[in-house]
Amino acid sequence: MCRILGIKNFDYRKHKELVENFFQLAEIGKTLKGDTKGHTDGWGIGCYESGKAVVWRSDKSVIKERDVFFKTIKNIKSSKVLIVHFRKSAWENTNSPENSHPFQYKNILFAHNGTIYDYKKLLKNITPKNEPSPNVLDSEVYFRYLMNSLSSDIEQTFKNSVAQIKKKNKYSSLTCIFTDGNTLYAYREYTKSPNYYTLYHSQIGNSSIISSEPISSKLNWQILRKNKLFTF
User: CA 74 to CA 25: how far, in whole Å?
Assistant: First the structure.
């Protein structure tokens, strides 16, 4: 249960205000009915430097680490794709850098919003070379399951793997964004709370913006429809 931001062709000078607006969601972003406010169970940033994926992750509240967060963003300057994630855990006492998003496998970055309740069932279908570290939770297992059958056609790999999860697993949402460093992919799928498990798209010049919530009144936002993989 999280807030997600993805920016294609990120440029700090152009997108600074958007990142600042997104930062506010850590404190005031939508939460599920009955949950406490805030997405403060860890944070992460993923980008590409000279074509290689780089990730920073923390188990602390991003509100308390505001200066570190913005210093990291500023130092990135530019990236073909930027992913930012603020975590709100569905699992008690699991704050750790390891459980913060985005996750990295080879040169692919992935961030998820939702819970797969019986995620351990997926582990038996992940080959040893692709197994996640022990004790990781549903989101990284979801990612590793997707990557287990990775081929040159990442879109078809994703669609095939998600189809199996939808048939065999119980989940609140499979909503996610991911990237290979060139294309930004976004997928929205849920079994409940459609007003929470959202992804919105907007465009600024050659930059596509994906966000859990609209983060600027200056832009035109379109909600992504359910069960379709979008590419940017």
Answer: 19
∠ at Cα 57 (78, 66), nearest 5°? 75
pTM score, two decimals? 0.95
Contact (Cβ atoms closer than 8 angstroms) between residue 59 and residue 42: yes
* Residue in the structure block whose two tokens are 């059958």: 149
Element (H, E) at 69: helix 66-76
Determine whether domain 2-231 maps to CATH 3.60.20.10: yes
Tokens for 154? 């990442």
Alpha-carbon distances, residue 169 vs 122, 172, 206 (angstroms): 8, 10, 37
Task: Give the containing element (helix H, strand E) for 204.
Answer: strand 200-204
* pLDDT tens column, 56-94: 999 999 999 999 999 999 999 999 999 999 999 888 788
Q: Is the dihedral of CA 102, 104, 109, 114 positive or negative?
A: negative
